[in-house]
Amino acid sequence: MRFDSPKNRLLICRETDITCTGGVVFIGDGHTGKTHTALNLAQYKKGHFYDTTDCTNLSKSVNLEFDYFILYSNIEKYKVTISSQLFILPGQKGRSEIGEGLAFEDAVDMYRNVRSINDVVILIMTYNLADVKSFQNLEYWLNRAIEHELISDLTSIILLGTHLDHGLFVTTNDSMIEEGKRYLLKSIEDRIGIKIGSDRIHSVKISNTTREGLDNLQDTVLNSFFHSFELIDYINSRDQVAKIEQKIINQENEDSFI
Ligand SMILES: Nc1nc2c(ncn2[C@@H]2O[C@H](COP(=O)(O)OP(=O)(O)O)[C@@H](O)[C@H]2O)c(=O)[nH]1
Ligand SMILES: [Mg+2]
């Protein structure tokens, strides 16, 4: 494992406590539920969900929004804390007129200046399951993500379909999603030479109103961090080093008795 890699800069391990952090970026058309999903994830830290029914008129995002959330897990004897920094980019394409806040290109410039973390651990490409156009537009958002270097060797991708509660109006079907995934993987490899394995691309469907799928989204975020940081390998190599060190100490003790 390289010790100057982003993984090592974003991970701190003290005895059996592992803490890692990283950027989670939401990208996609306006009105697809990016802000509400991020609020739901962020509220999760306080043990309940954001109630979208109370706030259906949340104004259009005209800024770079950010929040954070923390997840805990255990791997063997290790306690793992994942602290993710959420960034939500506006879905309004291009640049905005003076006095109209920030559109995507303005906010992504700002992101470059304010981000404390260079590496996007998870890119959440958001669409509305009941609006096929917003799914097709992910091609546009993929191009922007590539152009603005939001995808690196570390990045996992989540294709996030919202509005699952729209039942019969859910028109984006599973074969379209699978096809979309293949297209994303191929485009990323062809254009920037980054090979994203099938364990680093996921499709999740949620409803921000009924909360269906939010547990799955949380698990997927957690697993994506595990994969991006290769935590199992990291723990195994730490345990191996500890065993070798112990062996050396034992050997030294035996030698000193002779
Ligand atoms: N029915 C339903 N409405 C949603 C869902 N997610 C978001 N909304 C609504 O869709 C609108 C746009 O959501 P918002 O989070 O602001 O989208 P953004 O522009 O992508 O950030 C709001 O009125 C939300 O209440 C969902 O899963 N189901
Ligand atoms: Mg928004």
Task: Explain what the structure shows.
- This protein has 258 residues and is α/β, with parallel strands linked by helices.
- The chain has one domain: P-loop containing nucleotide triphosphate hydrolases (Rossmann fold, 3-Layer(aba) Sandwich), CATH 3.40.50.
- The chain is 40% helix and 23% strand.
- It is built from eight helices and seven strands, in the order H-E-E-H-E-E-H-E-H-H-E-H-E-H-H.
- It has helices spanning 6-9, 34-44, 104-114, 132-136, 138-147, 174-192, 214-228, 231-257, and strands at residues 11-14, 17-28, 65-75, 78-88, 120-128, 156-162, 201-205.
- Strands 1, 2, 3, 4, 5, 6 and 7 form a seven-stranded mixed β-sheet that branches.
- Strand 3 (65-75) and strand 4 form a beta hairpin.
- The longest helix is centred in the last third of the chain and has 27 residues, at 231-257.
- It is elongated and about 80 Å long.
- The protein starts with 5 loop residues before the first helix and ends with a helix.
- The mean pLDDT is 87.
- Bound molecules: guanosine-5'-diphosphate (GDP) and magnesium ion.
- Residues 34-35, 61, 88 line the site of magnesium ion.
- Guanosine-5'-diphosphate is lined by residues 30-36, 52, 56, 58, 61, 91, 162-163, 165, 207-209.
Query: What is the CATH C-level name?
Result: Alpha Beta
Bound compounds, each kind once, are: guanosine-5'-diphosphate, magnesium ion
CATH architecture: 3-Layer(aba) Sandwich
Residues in helix, %: 25-40%
Rg from alpha-carbon coordinates:
21 Å
Which structural category fits the helices and strands?
alpha/beta
Contiguous low-pLDDT stretches (5 residues minimum) are none
